[in-house]
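Supplementary material to the annual report.
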Amino acid sequence: MNRAGFLKHFAGELLSSSAQLLPVVVPGLAPALRAIEQTSPKAAPADPHSPWVLIGSLADFPPGSRTPVNQGQHLIVTHARGLYALDAAAAETDSTDTSPRRPLRLECNGQLALNPGGQWPANACLSLLTGNRISEEET
Amino acid sequence: MSLNRKQFLKHMAGWGAALAASGCAPRNLQNGDDLALRFFKPTHIDNPLAAYPNRDWESVYRNIFQADETFTFLCAPNDTHNCLLKTYVKNGIAVRIGPTYGYGKAKDLYGNTASHRWDPRLCQKGLGLVRRIYGDRRLKAPMVRKGYKEWVDKGFPRDANGKPDPKYFQRGQDQWLRLSWDEAYSIAAKALNNISGTYAGKDGAQKLLAQGYDEAMVKAMKEAGTQTIKMRGGMAFLGATRIYGMYRFVNSLALLDAKQRGVAADKAIGARGWDSYSWHTDLPPGHTMVTGWQTNDFELFSTEYSKLILVWGMNWITTKMPDSHWMTEARLKGAKTVAITVEYSATASKTDDVIVIRPGSDPAFALGLAQVIIAKNLFDADFVKHKSDLPFLIRMDTLEPLRPADILPNYQAKASQNLTMLAKDQKPEAILAQREQFAKDKLSDDFQPYTIWDSKQNTVRAVTRDDWGAKAQAQGLDPELRVNRQVTLKDGKKITVRTTFDLTEEYLNQNFTPEQTAKVTGCPVSGIVSLAEQIAANKEKTLFATGMGTNQYFNADLKDRAILMLATLTRNVGFPGGNVGSYSGNYRGALFNGMPQFIAEDPFEPQLDPKGKVKTAKRSYYESLHYFNYGDRPLRMGKHLLTGESHLPTPTKAMWLNNSNSVLGNIKWHYDVVMNTLPKLEFVAYADWWWTGSCEYADLVFACDSWAEFKHPDMTGSCTNPFVQVYPVTPLKRVFDTQADVEIIAGVAKALAKEVKEPRLAQMWEFVEKKQVEVYLQRIIDGTSALKGYDFNQLHQDAQKGIPALMNNRTYPRISSHEQVKDEAPWHTKSGRLEFYRFEPEFIESGENMIVYREPIDSTHYEPNVIVAKAHPAIRPKTPADYGVSEDQLDCETRQARHVLKTGEQLVQSKHPLKAKGFGHIYHTPKYRHGAHTTPVDTDFTGIWFGPFGDIYRRDKRLPSVVEGYVDINPLDARALGVDDGDYLYIDADPEDRPYRGWKKGTEAYKVSRLLLRARYYPGTPVGVTRTWHNMYGATFGSVKGHETREDGLAKSPETNYQAMYRYGSHQSATRAWLKPTLMTETLAHKAMFGQEIAKGFEPDIHCPVGAPREAFVKITRAEAGGMGGQGKWRPVELGLRPTYESQAMKTYLKGDYVRVKK
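Predicted assembly:
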C-alpha cells in the first residue's frame, strides 16, 4: 500500500470504528463527525409491554408528602426512610394505609417507576439510600 | 502442531478454497484472484468505504453512539489536570464521555494560543464517570442520622460538662432518615449555634477542660465557641466559590460569635478552616524552609526545555495521565529520563535509567549526590556564592549566623531596598497592588544582615538582603566557600566561624560518600556517581520532578532541602529546563490571588452591589488537620509543648466537610479517628455527591450535584498546566434531589441567619440566592494578577464549548524562581537567598539546622528516626534526657522528637524495635493511576482496573466488591511466610496504637478494623517492602455487616449501599498520625498564602505538619487460601499464569518463543 492508500485506509477504519476521532489531525473529518453527532432530541418511546410507569423524579416527592400519580390512580407516600405506593381509591377510604402497596423502583436516571399491577408485602417500602425494597420493621 | 512455512502456505491454500466454497469469502474479490495469495498481497484500496463489505451492522453502533445532544462539563478531582469533557446524551441520559479537543484553542489576554498538543485531555477516571453520575451510591437527598435527629429534636441535652449522651452518637451503626432541604439546613444551623454557644466564654472553656482537652488548645480559642467549628473544602483551589466558599463561611461565623459573646466586630472570631495541601501530605515542607514558598515548581511541559529529567518519587506516567505525554515526548526530543523510585514503577518502565532506593532514604540519596558534586568540584561556584546562603558565616558557639554588628566596627545596617517593613498598625496595600515584599514591624529583627569571608579582601564583610545575585557581584563580594577560622568579636570574644558550605561538606564527607550512601540507600556506587556527574553536566537543563512518594515520609522536609541544595549546587533552580518541582495535589491557590475578595470579605459589611468595592477582613483562623488526626491534641514530650503557639489547634466539636473523603473515610489512622476521636465530636456534616466512608460516620449528609449537573458555574486552575478552567453550567437535569455545593453553604447560612437573627449571615450569600455566582467569580478575577482583564461570562461561554483560557502568567510554562535567577527579586526568605542552614531554635534543637538524613520514623528495618551523623560540631540536638525521656524509649509517641545520632554503619546494624516481635515488612500506600484519592475508584468500571483480583461475576463470594484491595509482596518474602499468590493475609502494624489505640481482640470494632486483604506476588517490589494502593474504600461497620449477612457476600452496607473494597480493615489500619517538631515552628519566615507578605509561624498549606502516611512497619500473617471459597490455590496460580508459578506455555510466552525471527 502506498502512503496515500494507507491514509485513506486508516481514515476509513477510523470512520467506521468509532466516533472518537481526531478532528484536529484529520482535516475534513469535522463534517463527518457532525453527521454522527447530529442532535435531534429523541424521547424514549414508552414500552407498551412494560408494567412499569414513570411517575416523576425523586425530588418531586419530598419527605412527609402524599402525592397523587398515574393520573390520580395511585398515591406516593414518603416518609423519612423511603416511599411506598398505594391505590388512591383505597387510600381515601383507609387512613391506616393498609391497602396493597404497589412496587416502586428507582431508575438509573433518578426517575421513580411504579408497577400498578404488582404488589409488595405489607409494610414494604423503597429505601431512599439503597434503592432496595425494605420493610418498615427495618425502619 | 508445528508447521514450517511451506506447510503453512499449503494449509492456507486449502482453507482459502474451503472459505470460497462456503460463500464467506470477501465480496470484493475479483474473479481470477488466487484466494490464498490474496491474503498475502498488499492491500490497494482507493475508496475504503466502497471497498467494505456489507456495513449494515454498523447502524447498531451508530445508534448507540449517536447522541441526541452533547454538553460540556469539567472533570476535576484532585489530580491536578482538570479536563473539560464532552458528554453525549441520549434519551436524557449522559451515556458516554469524550474529550472536547478545545485546549489548542485556548488563548490568553494577548491572543497567544496554546497548542493542540494539549489535546485530547481525558483519562479513565473521566471515561467511567457516567457510572458514577448514575451510580447506586449517588447521594439522592439530604440525610440525617436517626440518633442525631433525636438529639436535635430533644433540644441538645448534655451533662454538666457539656457532653451529650453517647446513645445519640452511634455513628456508623445507626439508621438514616431523609430530610427536606429546609430541614437539613435548619438542623445544621441549630447544631452550629448550640455547639458554639455551649463552648463559648469562660464557662465553655471550663467544660472543655473538664472533658480532658489540652489546656493550651482551650486557651487558643480565646473564649470564642465558634473556634470549635472546623470546616474544610477538599482542595480549595478546585472550586473558587463552591469549595473556597467553606472558608468564606468560616470567616462569616464571626457574626455568630459577635452575637453569642456580645463582642464587637474587631473582637469577634469566626470558625477554623482546615488545611488542604498539607493535609494530604502534598506539601513539600522543605521548599518553604529553602525558598520561603509553599512550593517551587514548574509546569510539566517544561520538559520541552530540559536535557535531563529526574522523576523522583513521582509516578508521572500513572498519576499525571493527560500530561504524561510531556515526559515521553521529551525523550523523543532527546532528553534523558531517570526514575528514582522504590520499586520498578510504571514510570520506571518508560525511562532511560532506573534507580531503586530503599523507601524513605531519598534525603540520603540526594546528600550522596551532593557529596560527589562537591568532592569532584563539579558545582557552580558563582550560583552557590551569590544565590544561596552557603557562604554565610555561622558561629560555632551559638550555631547562629555571625552578624555584622557583632564583628564589624561602626557597622550600621541600611534599610533594605527589596523589603518594606510596615510600621505598627500600617495596613498593607491591596494584594493586586503589592509589587514588593513586605513584613510587619515585629519581624524587623529577622532580616538582619549576614556575613561572609571575602576572599579578595581576606576579611569578614556584611551581606544584606540586597546583596545577592548580580548585585553582590557588582559590589565585588567574593565569598570564600570553605571557611573554618577564629574571629574576634567587637566585645573581644574569640569564636570559631564556619561557612554553611564548609559545615555541609564536612557532614557529607563524614557520612555520605558514595560507598556510605550505597549502604544506606541501596543504590550502587556506580549509580550514585554516574547520576551526580550527569546532573552536574546539565546545568540549567536538569529538571527534578519530585512527587508524593517522597513527601509521605517523616523526613520529607529534609528531602526537599537536600534536593534543592543539589539543584542549587548544579545551577538548576529557576531555569526553563533546570528546576525543582513537587507534584501532588492541585494546590496553588495563590495563582488566584484575588481569592481574599471572596473568602475574606468582611461579614460585618457585606457588599451587596455587584459592582461595589469589597471590604476584606480576616476574622477567623486556620488550623492543620493533622492535630485532629492525632487525636485532637498537640505534640508534647513530657511537659514540653512542641507545637508552636500559632499552630495550636482548638478542640474540635463540629466539623463540616465538602468534596473530601480524606478527612474521615480515607484518613490516616482511620480506625483510631473513628473509635477515639470522633466520639468527642457533636456535629459531623458532609457534602458530597457519592456516599463515601466519610458519609458512613457523619451525622448529616448534604447531597450535591455532580459535575455534570452544575447549575452554578465555578472556576479552578492548575499547578501543572497553564489553564484557568470554568465549570460550566450544564443542561443535564438533576438526577436526584440534590443542590449545588455553594447553595448548600448558602442554605445553612440563611438558616443560621434566621436562627440567630443576624441577616448578614445570609447576605454573605446573596448572589447565590440570586443565581449570580458570577458576581463573586468576577470579583476574584478582577483581584487576580494573572486573570484581571478576563470577563467571566466570556470564559464561561468558552468553557461550554470545551475551550479553557490561558492564565496570563509571565512565562509559558510558568517557572518558579525565574525572577530570582534573573536578579529581579529575592526569594521570600530572611536573607532573600536560597537558605540551606536553619539557625532557628526549633531546628537546632532537632539537630536539623544543617541538612541531615533522618531514618524514616516507621517504614524501616532499622532504628527509626535516628539522625545519621558522626559527631559533628554543628549537630547538637536536644537529647531524650533533655525532655526527661530515656534514650531507650522508642515508642511511636516519643519517637517523633527523639534526636539520637548514629553513624551509617551503626544504622544498618540496628533494628526496628518490632523486629524482635515478628514484624518484618515495610508497608507503604502510594497512589494509583485510576483514582484521585478515592475518586472514583469504587465505580465498577474504574475499580476493575485495580489489579488481578477483579471479577465482574464475583465467582468467589469472598470478594468484597467486583475488585478488592491487595498487598504487593515480593515472591521471596511471600514464600518465606508460606504465602501463595492470591492468599488472604492479615496485616498488623504497631500494636501499641494500631489499628486504633485501645483495641481489644474479640470486639466488633477490632474485627472491622483489622486489615485482611489478598497477597499479590510482585517481583517489582524489593524484598522487605510491601505496598497497597492508597485509593481503596475501607471496611466500615456497615460494609462488614453486609459482607457477613448478605447472600451475595458483598461488603456493601445494607443500610447505605456503602461499598468497601476490603472485607475487613483498610490500608489505613496500618498508618497513623505523626507530628514533626520542625514543621510547627514560630520562627520560620515564609511568604504568606496570598500577596507579597513575609510572615512567620503557622500558615496553612505552607508551614505546618504534613504527617507521614506512607510509614508503617508490619507483621504479615497468612489468613486464608486464595482458591475459590478458601480451598486450594487461587485459580490463576493453578493455571500457571502468575509469577513463580509459570506453566511451560507461560514460560515460552515470556521468553518470546512463540515468535521466531529467521536470520
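Chain A touches chain B through 44 residues (CB under 8 Å).
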